[in-house]
Specification:
This protein is mostly helical. It is built from eight helices and two strands; from the N terminus they run H-H-H-H-H-H-E-E-H-H. Strands 1-2 form a two-stranded antiparallel ribbon. The longest helix is centred in the last third of the chain and has 51 residues, at about 170-220.
Length: about 280
């Protein structure tokens, strides 16, 4: 597997995982605000307000938040598995047998790339003054041009040294063989570093995200007297400071509080206080 082939996709996955604690914090903030609004709405109602319905509303709010967090965790786990799989593939690249059509297409593309490359050197006449120096210059150009083209590089690697040997461009052949060897070493080193970084990301990030989801789960389920979460572990080495706990006297919450229990309010308004029935 070539690192550049997956870098964009894996970078996107890593950014999504880095955003997970922010998404958790947003869900907890939303739940806290709704609970404060629920409490504010209920506290302003007359004594005959059905308090058991308030408890039911709170349970529904917590269940909905728990469901959203479960979906978020499922997506995060899937992304962690993708990173983990990419790390294993980079450490031990898999060699999938190519289908006949794939192999033929690759051979055609590689053949065309070699034809283009060979024409550079075919233009160097055997009797041309300075032909050896020109061959070396063409090798340097060819190496530079093929660096970002895997098909062209395979053609160079497979065909150019032998061609140069046949033309008795010995210095140019040594130059080409050295470039091929350097490319192989650089690729192996890059793959090792790439795999190591992915392994470290998963090893460090997985338990930190698990801890963040555990804290969130305790708050959503109201376990162990879990209060406002001040800080959440991040996917990387830094933690996320959460927003302050909302206050019941927040003007914004007060203006919204009557909207939270619309269906419940309408049900209660249809009731009459004891002693008021029948005028």
């Amino acid at each position: 597997m070539e690192p550049n082939a997956k870098a964009g996709t894996l970078a996107d996955i890593r950014r999504r995982l880095e955003d997970v604690p922010h998404a958790i914090a947003a869900e907890l903030g939303r739940l806290e605000r709704d609970l404060v609004r629920l409490k504010a709405t209920a506290s302003g109602q007359p004594w005959y307000w059905p308090r058991e319905r308030v408890a039911l509303a709170e349970r529904r709010l917590r269940d909905a938040a728990g469901q959203r967090l479960a979906e978020l965790r499922s997506r995060a786990d899937a992304d962690l598995e993708l990173l983990d799989g990419a790390a294993r593939a980079a450490q031990k690249p898999a060699s999938r047998p190519m289908e006949a059509a794939e192999r033929l297409l690759l051979e055609v593309r590689q053949g065309r790339a070699w034809d283009r490359l060979r024409r550079r050197f075919d233009r160097i006449a055997d009797t041309e003054p300075g032909r050896l120096e020109r061959a070396e210059r063409e090798v340097r150009r060819a190496v530079k041009d093929a660096a970002d083209d895997s098909v062209a590089w395979r053609a160079l690697e497979a065909e150019l040294p032998g061609y140069l040997e046949d033309r008795r461009f010995d210095a140019a052949r040594s130059l080409a063989e050295g470039a091929v060897a350097d490319h192989a070493k650089a690729t192996a080193s890059t793959l090792g570093l790439y795999a190591g970084n992915l392994v470290a990301d998963v090893a460090e990030g997985r338990p930190r995200l698990a801890a963040a989801f555990s804290l969130a789960g305790d708050f959503v389920a109201a376990r162990h007297n879990a209060g406002h979460i001040v800080r959440l572990p991040g996917f990387g080495q830094s933690d996320l400071d959460t927003a302050p706990s909302p206050r019941a006297d927040d003007p914004e919450l007060a203006s919204e509080s009557t909207e939270l229990l619309g269906p419940l309010s309408r049900a209660v308004e249809s009731l009459e206080a004891p002693g008021q029935a029948g005028g």
